[in-house]
Amino acid sequence: MEHPHDTDQRLTALEIKASFSEDLLEQLEQIIIRQQQQIDLLLRQVARLDQPSTDGGLGAPRSLRDELPPHY
Do residues 42 and 36 touch, judged by C-beta distance below 8 A? Predict the structure, then answer.
């Protein structure tokens, strides 16, 4: 038969583990939220890059010949 003191110690240990698990879960949730915000921002930036340029031709596509060094 277990002593009440042993049961109290085991219960206290389980409560401590549960508390640490709850803290870890909260930290992981915050990390996931932050990562999702970063993903959303990156997706908006990529979508903007995929849109046709409306800046008067400053970002217009150039010919590959324009990219050749002068010695070609």
Answer: no
